[in-house]
Sequence to fold (678 residues):
Amino acid sequence: MAKKLYHGAAYYPELWNEETIEEDLNLMIEAGINVVRIGEFAWSSMEKEEGNIDLSFFVNIIERLYNHGIETVMCTPTPTPPIWLTHNHPERLHVDAKGNVMSHGSRQHICTNNAYFRKRAAIITGEIAKAVGHLPGVIGWQLDNEFKCHVSECMCETCKTLWHKWLEGRYGTIDTLNKSWGTHIWSQYYHSFDQVPQPISTPFLHNSSLSTMYQLFSYEKIAEFSDEQAAIVRQYSKAPITHNSTTFFHVDNERLYKHLDFASFDTYAERSNFASYLFNCDLWRNFKSGQDYWIMETSPSHSASLESYAAPHPNGYLKAEAVASYALGGEAFCYWLWRQQRTGCEQPHGSVISAWGKPTVGFENVKEVEAARKELESIITSTRPLQAEVAITYSDRARAFMKTEPHKDLDYRSLIIPFYERVLSAGYHRDLLPEGANLKGYKLLFTPFVHYVSNDYLQQATKFVEEGGIWIVGPLTGGRTEHHTIHTDAALGKLEQLAGVETLYTYPMDGTETYGEFNGVKAPLSLWSSVFQPTAGRAVGTIWGGNSDGEAFMTEHRYGKGKIVMLGSLPSGESGDLLLKNLIDHYAKEANVQLKTDVSRGTIVAPRIGNGETIWVIVNMDGAGGTVSIPDSGIDSVTGQQLEEGQYEIGPFEHKVITFRMKDEQTTGAAQGEVTIS
Ligand code: GAL
Ligand code: ZN
Fold:
């Protein structure tokens, strides 16, 4: 549980003179900034020439900030290796899939697996941790910055050698690899691990196993780099360690956070995309369960670079974002960046203060955030986010499988976010869970778009169903093995027997004039689909027209105390929206989901518990204002006013905090995260 709410900014004091720094400190106080993140690109200021490390500037600045009441998240500067590390050393640089060797000048240009880079990275990390790790101002660490944000898998010679070792570790013998990947296809057969290519340019596509495994290899290597840095920092500092990530980058976030202390993300979603902002909050809360997450970067107004810019937030939206995030489990809300860049390639980016030291278009909004932070701090720090009853699995591994097999330009994020949005806009409180998350306490679980369902996941989900949960599997789930090959026992492997179905066919339904009907709603079916024939279960969704007229695209099967529902296709269009809404409501009802609010679209309720109370933080996100129904009498925590059961209005971007006193039996349930207030 958070002890304090942070309001912060990324700060680059090494780029400014003394006078400006003094001005910054005063302006930070005025803006209500209580934490800054520093150092992530400062390697050349810390170690001008190789071996000549001087960190006194950073020690000083951290102390000065602290004396002004501002705490620091210190970073390791490894995303921007200095020229002495790269000049005349093309072999240290990142190589992309087309064989292009990166050059010095931007960031992430080096290969993070290069041995000499790792040596220098370890040295600078150790020195920084030694120099600042004990300072009272240092309350946290960020490793590097946005791993793999500009680059994906590296194809350099170092990576080639590591790849072969990784394959050997995974498969043991080349014979096993050959069999698992079916390499006699197109005569790919290998005699030794060192013959296995990297997925670089080829006349047509690579073997699916090779493409997916290379991504998983790369996921693992970047996480190992993170682990290594964390271990070094821990030798000198007790402050918790994070990394700022997103769902865009080429990392497996679940794996990445495994050995870190807290999770954090960066977001630059525009207001129109507020669902994707909330998606991050509902996901990041669950990477380190029971631990608050941080928003490490967001713009006070707009993101931009030399080449483009996004729409600035309308006034009021920033505060709505901050309130929503604090309420959904965010301990910190931090900007990129404090003072507008004078040089570089991101001068047009929104900031709190301009390069000439004046408030920007976002400044008043930042002050509004600070006012809201103060208003909410005691409420948030005495409660914690309530566990949802509805869970949706999020998997970066599934994202890798889809990158290998995108069918028609599908990408995992653009499928899962709209799917999540349906649950969100129907008013359900929800958790996005990484694959390995504990499913205890949930009632309804969705597993869409996961080509490969691991044995571990299958076991957990089965247990969840045995104990009474309803598991909705699909669309696009289960059709691939761990090697990214096709099952040969049944189209969806072991899943079929559990779900009491036989999959008759799998094929794309787009453009086939195929409709699916569930609960009286009929909609066109789309995407790569599975057509079912129930064996033990029963059909609940029928196919009309197309190549599989009369068969099932949806089935359900009682299993233990719960149920497995197979969803073989994605209903599309407006009627598809309706069908899916119907499906969600139908099974939520059957699963006895209580954590649902009657709230208009564009407004959200974030429930929290603690102190024998349930709290609702209600926020209007779309700027159109909305309504919310309160099922019981409560108290407006800000005004102290007593509110009776009924419908209330929320103005554009406004929020309300309502406290409900729990009945005794509910308080007991709350300890297990099972309380409901309706
Ligand atoms: C992030 C990055 C920052 C800055 C920002 C601009 O991806 O971590 O350093 O570039 O984007 O939006
Ligand atoms: Zn490399």
